Amino acid sequence: MLTQIQFPKSKSYRTGSGYEPLKFYLDCLSNAREFDLLLGYFSSAAINVLSLGFAQFIYKGGKMRILANHILSEEDKAAVIAGKNKGVQIPFDLEDIRSIRAGLDKYGKHFFKCLAYLIANDRIEIKIVKPKSKGIAHYKDGIFRDENDAVSFHASCNFTAFGLLENAESLNCFLASDSEASKHKILEDQAYFDEIFEGKADHLEYLDIHQITTAIKNEFSGDDLKELLVEEADLIRKKNQVFRSKELEHYVSDLELELEKIANEPRFPYPEEREIQKNAYKAWIENDRKGIFAMATGSGKTITSLNCVLKRYVEDGFYKVIIAVPTQALVIQWEKEVSAFNFQNVISTHTDKNWKDAIRRYSTRSQFDQKKNIIVITTYATFNRNEIQSFLRSTRGIESFIYIADEAHNTGSPTGLKNMPQKISQRIGLSATPERIYDEGGSEQMYNFFNSHPPFYTYRYTMKQAIDNNILCHYDYHPIFVELTEVEMLEYRRITEKLRKYIDTETGAYKKEAEMLLLQRKRIVHKAENKKIALATLLDSFKSKHKLNYTFVFVPEGFEPDYADRDDFDIETEDMHIIDEYAEMFKIRNYKYYKFIGGISDAENVLKNFKDGHIDVLLAMKCLDEGVDIPRTQHAIFCSSTGNPRQFVQRRGRVLRTIKGKEKAQIWDMIVIPPNITEEISSTEKNLFTAEVKRIVNFAALADNEIDILYGELKELCEQMKIDLFDLLEKENEKYN
What we know:
By secondary structure, the protein is of the alpha/beta class.
């Protein structure tokens, strides 16, 4: 904040005094959020000289506007042109103040790449002017602003390394909060700057980048260009001598310590919080720091929960967190998000070989220091084992930890319920679909643990909200109807008859003893033989239109993993045979594909190749349901029918994540129907199709082509089987109210 600066009473700075002009710039850059600079000469070497302040300015999201005359160094002209062309890759990590400082403090090619990047991303806007009459623009004024205050200044020195380090210069400033007169003066200065910057100054000519004149050392006359033509690299080296002067030495030491402190401080990794993050935190606090965030896949659950940790850190002065996730791939993804928030002392049970020793050391130290920062990221399988459970029992101050459960429905499994961290009072459960299907008891205990019950979860953000607010992209949905064979239908009926004796007469639900039979019946639908014919027909239809790329194919699978005991799963021989058959269809049509199965060791590399376009199609089995983030995905083919909302909602969320250049996603879904439908259809066949219709309605309700879906083949089939399609649609829409 600008009000934290100790300005001289006179508001005047002089070379050789206790208040150097250099100190004014360093102070204001370290505390401002916006900087408007009206100049004669500009040289990026000045940014380098002031790198201690500029690193903080950029790190904190600062933006700068510069008006300068038409004479620049050759290097600066090249950087401006590169930035204006926008084709500049980030040369440093904007989330890491150390890398920013290194980039600004290195006077060479890397430094000019940094300048070009800042220009390309509107962090530094440069406009070039010259008077319509003879002469050059020779202003030396500017305004610094933060959220509440402003400082304007008038200086004798140009914004160049020469002006800052060589000349005897002076600078006078005005602080808005000092007086009404100062405030009025700043408003005048700001209005004058804005008039020029917006192209409204009649006395100036506005030049494009190609009209910039470069100052060439051996081709100039007079002393006017000297500031741009001296060897600025030498002046950068001289900066260190200036900073060793008695007047600045103590100040600069303090500034460097402040930089180091900031480098280790957690912070929100984006320019500002969304309303989602603000509202979720408020709801969590009001619910005694417990709750389930029922947020659509892709709407930012991870960021929202880590923002709660960040806000508690601001209040408490420390952070202590345990994060549990289903899979090893998700551990890696969470590590990246935690790193983006700049949290320190992060221990991963998947990537840290010595994690057991690390948590033991922390547990021992907790006997003396209960405010030491730590974040442990683990899978549920490891969380439920002795090492983590022992850590929970032996760590002093465990009650002040925050427990984050990603895909929180996993905590309601029998193993998860036994190991719920009851001593930890601050709890966040994350899931797009928290309910545990066919497990009311596990669901209820999970709700009680997080003090959050449906439909009024602690915080709720639906997929409809995410699509309407462009957090997720729009999509078209294309159901493909696939008949069971007569043999498959007979087997489906046979298992259904067996299941009747396992129905609980009080609840109407199946008893636990029915679990294996339910899985066997589900496999019939998952692995319907005619799906292969339907897929081949679909792929052939693309030949005349376009070729698929950035495509997920969810292949039929045998069972849904239980992550309470394992964080990876082997694929059965029968299932491998199925994925091979599906892969062959893409191979013979010359697609670049990869069989992405649960537990593969090079998952990260495979996903990168998919993102970069080196792989057209990922055939997924027992993976990509739980939280993997690949925004580039544009198409999905659901060959694995599922009546479990968690699976199909999460799979849809994988496809709807936004990225530049992606306007809409396309989803094809294979819908299993009974063979030879007649008016005399049995209740078994009707129930089979009703389960599939519920999934169609869930997708159709939010699809751009909803009308086409509801009034096409689906409507005819529902009428034949006497299924009230629009009643199901009305119930679906009620979920989004």
